[in-house]
Amino acid sequence: MLRSHTAPLRPLPSDISGESLSNKAYHLIEEMIVTLVLPPGSNVTEKDLSEKLGIGRTPIREALQRLATEHLVIAVPRHGILVTEINIPEHLALLETRRVLDRLIASRAASRATPEQRDSLRELASKIIEAATIPEASEFMRTDSEADAILDHACRNVFAVQATAPLHIHCRRFWFMYRKNGDLNQSAALHSALFNGVAGGDESIAATASDTLLDYLVQFTRNTLDDY
Fold it and tell me: Rg of the chain over CA atoms, in angstroms?
């Protein structure tokens, strides 16, 4: 049985193509996994998800296959599809990998972003500070995701983006799981500094801001491991 979502699911247009519907299913299921509506170790079925999201089983199946390649779900014989568990020591290795890719994306985005992208990042730098004051964490996460999308486009490096995308998803789920151990205002300030650093166009400042954010995430993970 699927639990109620922490925020209303976005409405689905009735006239979008099958490919777009599959993509929509992917993002909706991903959000459910990240926000623990589908908690680690839970069992999911195509039928349940299809009924919950109002999407046909073929797009749901395609979305689950994509999520499996990103290690968010796994097919287990006689148990169906399971949401993967969170392994804290492995998460530190993930952050080690993410540090290199995030630094590359931030520095390239700083030099290659359009004026419109820089303006959007400045707006999101303020928005994420405000989002940190709201008890409901979904707005913070959506602001972060929106900024990530801009950085991904601005860096113009599809290979780095493809490699880092699943890492960010795992990090958002980890944060949502253990967020009580962290300082949301501090996290927001570090994200804001990154967005402003990229918007300012200085590669060195943007790269340093990215590293500082990763330092915080590593310490947050180590603190969680100590309490585990």
Answer: 18
CA distance 33 to 166: 12
Question: Please, what are the domains in the chain?
Answer: 18-83 (1.10.10.10), 88-227 (1.20.120.530)
Q: pTM (2 decimals)?
A: 0.83
Distances (CA, A) of 187 to 8, 17, 34, 181: 25, 38, 18, 12
pLDDT digits (tens, 9 = 90+) for 99-111: 999 999 999 999 9
Q: What distance in Å separates the CA atoms of residue 131 and residue 184, rounded to the nearest whole number?
A: 9
Question: How far is the CA of 55 from the CAs of 51, 139, 157, in angstroms?
Answer: 7, 25, 32
Site of tokens 């952050």: 95
- Token pair for 134: 């709201």
Q: What's the half-sphere exposure (Cβ side, CA atoms, 13 Å) at 225?
A: 12
Mean pLDDT for all residues in the chain: 89
